[in-house]
Amino acid sequence: MTQSDHRALSVPEGLAGERVDAAMSRLFGLSRTRAADLIGRGLVQVDGAGAAKSDRVLAGAVLEVEIPVEADASEVVPEIVEGIKIIHDDDSIVVIDKPVGVAVHPSPGWTGPTVVGHLAGAGFQIATSGASERQGIVQRLDVGTSGVMVVCKSEHAYSVLKDAFRQRTIDKVYHALVQGHPDPLEGTVDAPIGRHPKADYKFAVMADGRPSVTHYSTLEAHRFASLLEVHLETGRTHQIRVHMSALRHPCVGDLTYGADPTLAARFKLERQWLHAVRLGFEHPDTGEHVEYSSTYPDDLADALEAVRAAH
């Protein structure tokens, strides 16, 4: 049930004759647009009766409004998330295997499960550095991308690994099943990425974008698709997806970035075939090189077998 803030004030002489939306704006400190929205939703009454925004108010009239309290989009809600696996846990870091359909942290417009919510629900204490909804987070994976990632538990680990990601000393390895056969079979995509000019949920290669470098090599070539190993030098949002799409070899199943829906349906894919398989770095406490890995989840493994078998 949505909570609401009930407010009631009588109209002073100085506002007599004003429109209801203008009076609300002055009395309650709301924008005219917000006031009009509340009136349109039937949440405003003048002397106990419904009001239209163009109605005029009289001095002494009681103006009442119910203002819904919107949920804080950045609030971390502790909940155990089915499918998240703990690969490694020590005093400094927790390494997890993130399933598809889980966001790393809360954000506006996302109401589904999150990694930080799971860790809170499971009793993990994570670093308090970073924005409240992103505390301990030094890397992200898309909601539609699965695989291995690290979250920091200590402030020292957060500082060390945040810097390591910034200095590009982290070994981030993904496997991607892409349409067709990239030419050359291995190479580097060095193309800046920025927000798509016509769709704010997408990204694109843009001249004024942020520097983005992706290294790839072909592991397997099949009739319809190629399995690539991808090493990320930078870590932009949707980087592999955008760069592969720019090469005209989008990840199989990635309809957002131009994949063939017929091919996706044939191999029963409901998301992009992209998985974070390995993560290597110097442990923030010991300084020794550690590496963690994740196997393909069932949907990707089944699709790859189907591609291998396709003639």
TrEMBL record:
KW RNA-binding (keyword) present: yes
Pfam family, one: PseudoU_synth_2
Catalysis performed (reactions): a uridine in RNA = a pseudouridine in RNA
GO molecular function: catalytic activity, acting on RNA; pseudouridine synthase activity; RNA binding
Organism domain of life: Bacteria
Enzyme class: isomerase
PROSITE patterns in alphabetical order: PSI_RLU, S4
Residues annotated as the enzyme's active site: 142
Domain Pseudouridine synthase RsuA/RluA-like per the UniProt entry, residue ranges: 93-246
Keywords: Isomerase, RNA-binding
InterPro entries reported in the protein's UniProt record: PsdUridine_synth_cat_dom_sf, PsdUridine_synth_RluA-like_CS, PsdUridine_synth_RluC/D, PsdUridine_synth_RsuA/RluA, RluA_PseudoU_synthase, S4_RNA-bd_sf
EC number: 5.4.99.-
GO BP terms: enzyme-directed rRNA pseudouridine synthesis
Transmembrane segments: none
CDD domains from the UniProt entry: PseudoU_synth_RluA_like, S4
Protein family per UniProt: Belongs to the pseudouridine synthase RluA family.
Reported function: Responsible for synthesis of pseudouridine from uracil.
NCBIfam families for the chain: rluA_subfam (TIGR00005)
Protein name as catalogued: Pseudouridine synthase
Biological source species: Nocardioides flavescens
The organism's taxonomic lineage, starting at the top: Bacteria, Bacillati, Actinomycetota, Actinomycetes, Propionibacteriales
